[in-house]
TrEMBL record, chain A:
GO terms for cellular component: membrane protein complex. It comes from the Bacteria. This is ABC-type antimicrobial peptide transport system, ATPase component. Belongs to the ABC transporter superfamily. SMART domains: AAA (SM00382). Pfam families: ABC_tran. The lineage of its organism: Bacteria, Bacillati, Bacillota, Clostridia, Thermoanaerobacterales. Keywords: ATP-binding, Nucleotide-binding, Transport. GO terms for molecular function: ATP binding; ATP hydrolysis activity; transmembrane transporter activity. InterPro entries: AAA+_ATPase, ABC_transporter-like_ATP-bd, ABC_transporter-like_CS, MacB-like_ATP-bd, P-loop_NTPase. Gene3D superfamilies: P-loop containing nucleotide triphosphate hydrolases. CDD domains: ABC_MJ0796_LolCDE_FtsE. Residues 3-232 form the ABC transporter domain. It comes from Thermoanaerobacter thermohydrosulfuricus WC1.
Length: 232, 743
């Protein structure tokens, strides 16, 4: 098993109130598959994304990635984990405005032990012609493709996407999903997409449904469709 | 590391903001380098000059020829007589000395040591009259060849009279010639002038011994000689200004950098969070962001050092000609250049570090979602503001929210006011001192100091002239002296007034000058303990009144009482105040000068201060401009969204400007209002510290004209910077904000 989560819990304390963002969540993910995480706002999707990505810590429970317990890692090891295992794609792209498209992708490749060719990835994402532009000169769809390129170029074992189509129009969203599917197929990367959009679940191998911090459903999808066929 | 490119790109994008901070750092480094390097140059050359050319420890003038051997053996000091005579021709006074071999040796810069028939001229007189080597000069109808320029270690600040404020090379010069020529030109020299070098265990014994044997006319220790001590005082003054001035500018720029960096970090929170998520460590990100202070420091301080270093040499030359100091050695003070480089580094890096420190306490998730920005974006809630109408309420809230910024703006204006007022006051005070002292208080036209205290039966005084007596005293417990004058009871030549403008009658009671009273902390009715410089005799006198004289450590009483108290006969006197020129024999006169000549030349010299004032005004104006511009731009940048929304709601630009930046007007006014009295206090304390142990005192007066001029310049600069900021605000379009919000 590539990812194994055991009774993960995360509690936020605001004054005297406690909010249990994750409540004893357990699941297993296989290498090279696409997963979606769905659920209403406040269900714990982003918290799960943060913990799985080594951006935040769980209060209770354990999580193993490729046999390593990331919940036991110190900050330095977590940093190495993010560097070697995970690529991130955010809803609002989070590109570095002070760097060009090429440099944004290169800044990620530079951290990897086994990076992919930057030009090749840019071509794959269809943003090669924009390589010398700065992020603010691109459309939202283009920026998200650059963000995917930045995640992919490290050649990570897993890409975590937080609402990757949330800020995009329909056509751009479809293109982004197609690219994620291509990456999964071509490099065998495990992809986990957090989304409000139920239609996206149809292209996933399995879906985790969260509600009020609990995993209420883990459903495999034997009738998986391609990203091209997804519509809403 | 590729991400190290980020800071430079951000700086390019926010060019004017960073350029302004860089300029502030550059001004700070430049100020320090400029003053420190030029002062070091002057200081090193000064010390070398007085050591190598044997500056005297003092000089004295007697009416009889002394027994040098006896004096040397008894007191163990080196002595050298210099022949001395003063010639007044065509409104020019030439003080002529023979060339000394052991003490006060001349440094010859151009030309050669004069032989018979040749003279050396002091550099200022040489330049002022555009002489060249081998030109001829006529002294008492005898032609001499100018053999070159000579610097004297005891005539560094070349003033004619001890009480003069500024040198006047157009009307006064020092001439050196051979002893032979001196004797030929002046067969009967009225006095004997001696320089001494060496430590005296008991100076009072030394003076008494000379006085009792050869009749001492004048005794001046080095520490009382304004021609020497003014240089040290002015150097010390300039040194005292250097560090606080630079430190202040560095502190202001560091604070602004702190605010700017916090803003940048706030706007880049998600990008920094992303860098972490990609696997960059805190160390990596810290190194990248510390490049902001690094670039600002490097560019600003190197630019400042270069500007300061190259400007330091013209400034050194200016000081050199002002003090009449030769250049004996090229000085490259590495230690000051290091300080100019290191000083801004300390403050700028601390400010950069502090700006980053809090941000790094956030978790990556907080960085990604910008918790920090939400925290900083909340307006403080003060019920008091609710009393005002909406726009004023928002303006007050912005002022309160950005209190630290408003404070820096006010402090910046205070500082600019002080800087500008300092230059203007220096000029004002000299003009006031001259006008008041020589036009309001001193009614005579000519002053004659005679060779001896006597009843002078050979001199017939008309009603246009008055006799006076004068003695110099040490003030006990202080390294200060006072000149007490005995003048006619109903004197028409000297008029003294109190601070209310009422005339103080001259009586048997002592009246002292206000600068001296201030320096000694004396009030009317207090006692002053003094000791005669010549006889060592001690006196205690009660201060009857304090006269509103702007310059001088002086005291006055009527001549009769003066003579009685200090042991002279009733009719004796040493000098004459006169409304008309007297035809006295040269053998009788020790010193003389005309008041109108002095007033005019000093007023003209005060005009030379205009250049200094212009430079100070320019620096003050640039400082004010940069500070107001950077702080206001920051507010606009931070509030682009709010500006867009307010515009969208239909608010006019003027109203938005008032709401966001209206509080600046109060800060500006407060800064100026506080700055005016503070500049007076600062200057008074600077003057007191500088003149603490020397016989010089001057009241610093700030004229209404100077206050208005300073306000006009600073207000103009304020309006210009506001105009620039307003243009920036005009460029914020509501549609851009909406687009930003969609993204």
């Amino acid at each position: 098993m590539f990812v194994k989560a055991e009774k993960l819990s995360k509690i936020y304390r605001i004054g005297k109130n406690e909010i249990r963002a994750l409540n004893e969540v357990s699941f297993e993910l296989e290498r090279g598959k696409i997963y979606t995480v769905i659920g209403p706002s406040g269900s714990g999707k982003t918290t799960l994304f943060n913990i799985l990505g080594g951006l935040d810590r769980a209060e209770e429970g354990r999580i193993f990635v490729d046999g390593k317990e990331i919940t036991a890692m110190d900050q330095k090891k977590l940093s190495d984990y993010r560097r070697d295992y995970v690529g991130f794609v955010f809803q609002f792209y989070n590109l570095i405005n002070g760097l060009t498209v090429y440099e944004n992708v290169l800044s990620s490749a530079a951290l990897s032990k086994n990076p992919l060719d930057v030009d090749m990835v840019l071509e794959m994402m269809d943003v090669y012609s924009e390589k010398n532009k700065f992020p603010f000169e691109l459309s939202g769809g283009q920026q998200q493709r650059v963000a995917i390129a930045r995640a992919v170029v490290k050649n990570p074992a897993m890409i975590l996407c937080d609402e990757p189509t949330g800020a995009l129009d329909y056509e751009s969203s479809k293109l982004v999903l197609k690219l994620l599917e291509d990456v999964n197929k071509r490099f065998g990367t495990t992809i986990l997409i957090i989304t409000h959009n139920l239609a996206i679940s149809k292209m996933a191998d399995a879906t985790l449904r969260l509600r009020s911090g609990r995993l209420v459903e883990f459903s495999e999808n034997p009738q998986k469709i391609s990203a091209q066929e997804v519509s809403w | 590391m590729l991400i190290k490119k980020i800071p430079l790109r951000v700086m390019k994008r926010e060019f004017l903001q960073f350029f302004s901070i860089i300029m502030l750092v550059a001004i700070a480094s430049m100020t320090y380098t400029l003053f420190a390097v030029s002062m070091e140059d002057i200081d090193v050359n000064y010390k070398m000059f007085i050591k190598d050319y044997v500056q005297e420890d003092g000089y004295f003038i007697t009416s009889q020829n002394i027994d040098e051997k006896l004096l040397k053996e008894k007191f163990g000091v080196e002595l050298e007589e210099r022949l001395f005579y003063e010639v007044q021709e065509n409104g020019i006074t030439l003080r002529i000395f023979s060339i000394s071999d052991r003490i006060n040796k001349p440094y010859i810069e151009a030309g050669k040591k004069p032989q018979d028939g040749e003279v050396l001229l002091d550099p200022s007189f040489f330049k002022a009259h555009q002489y060249h080597t081998n030109d001829s000069i006529t002294i008492l109808n005898k032609k001499f060849t100018v053999s070159g320029i000579g610097y004297l270690p005891d005539y560094i600040y070349i003033i004619k009279n001890d009480q003069d404020i500024l040198p006047d090379p157009k009307h006064f010069g020092v001439v050196l010639m051979t002893e032979n020529d001196m004797k030929k030109l002046f067969p009967a020299l009225p006095v004997h002038y001696y320089s001494y070098k060496g430590r005296l265990n008991n100076i009072e014994d030394f003076k008494s011994f000379i006085n009792s044997n050869w009749h001492l006319l004048k005794f001046v220790e080095k520490s009382e000689n304004p021609r020497i001590i003014y240089t040290e005082m002015k150097l010390e003054n300039a040194k005292r200004m250097t560090l606080p001035l630079s430190l202040f500018i560095i502190l202001v720029s560091s604070f602004i950098l702190f605010i700017v960096m916090r803003r940048i970090i706030n706007t880049m929170h998600a990008e920094i969070g992303t860098l972490y998520s990609m696997g960059y460590t805190q160390k990596d990100v810290f190194r990248v962001f510390m490049r902001f202070p690094l670039y600002i420091w490097l560019t600003g301080s190197i630019l400042g050092i270069l500007l300061g270093y190259f400007e330091a040499y013209p400034l050194s030359e200016f000081y050199r000609s002002y003090f009449t100091l030769p250049k004996l050695k090229n000085v490259l003070p590495w230690q000051h250049i290091f300080v100019a480089l290191a000083l801004p580094a300390v403050f700028i890096f601390i400010s950069g570090y502090l700006a980053l420190k809090n941000f790094f306490k956030l978790t990556i998730v907080q960085m990604l979602h910008g918790v920090d920005e939400i925290k900083f974006g909340k307006l403080p809630d003060i019920k008091f503001f609710d009393r005002f109408e909406f726009q004023t309420k928002i303006m007050l809230k912005y002022g309160y929210r950005h209190f630290a910024r408003e404070l820096v703006l006010a402090v910046g204006i205070i500082f600019s006011t002080i800087l500008m007022m300092y230059g203007m006051t220096a000029k004002d005070s000299i003009v006031v001192a001259i006008e008041r002292t020589y036009e309001k208080n001193f009614k005579y036209e000519y002053l004659y100091l005679l060779n001896s205290v006597s009843t002078h039966p050979e001199i017939k005084l008309t009603n246009q002239a008055e006799p006076y007596n004068v003695m110099s005293f040490d003030i006990e417990g202080r390294k200060l002296s006072i000149m007490i004058y005995g003048i006619k009871k109903d004197s028409q030549m000297i008029k003294l007034y109190d601070n209310k403008g009422n005339e103080i009658p001259i009586s048997n009671k002592l009246v002292i000058s206000r600068p001296l009273a201030n320096k000694l902390g004396l009030k009317e009715g207090d006692k002053i303990h003094i000791k005669s410089k010549f006889t060592d005799k001690k006196y205690t006198l009660k201060v009857y009144k304090i006269a509103d004289l702007p310059v001088g450590n002086s005291g006055y009483m009527d001549l009769e009482s003066f003579n009685k108290i200090f042991g002279y006969s009733r009719e004796e006197y040493i000098g004459i105040f006169s409304k008309e020129k007297l035809s006295l024999s040269n053998n009788l006169i020790f010193e003389s000068y005309s008041k109108s000549e002095l007033v005019n030349t000093i007023k003209a010299s005060a005009g030379d201060l205009s250049k200094t004032i212009e430079v100070m005004a320019l620096v003050a104006a640039i400082l004010a401009l940069l500070i107001v511009y950077v702080l206001s731009t920051l507010t606009v940048n931070e509030n682009k969204k709010n500006i867009g929304i307010l515009k969208m709601l239909g608010y006019r630009e003027g109203s938005i400007f008032k709401m966001m930046l209206g509080f600046n007007n109060f800060s500006f006014l407060a800064g100026f209002i506080i700055g005016v009295p503070l500049s007076k206090i600062t200057m008074d304390s600077l003057m007191n510290a500088a003149t603490k142990d020397i016989d010089f005192a001057m009241m610093l007066d700030v004229s209404t004209k100077s206050i208005f001029s300073t306000f006009a310049v600073l207000f103009f600069v304020f309006v210009v910077s506001r105009f620039l900021v307003r243009r920036k605000m005009a460029k914020v379009m509501p549609v851009e904000i909406l687009r930003e919000q969609v993204d």
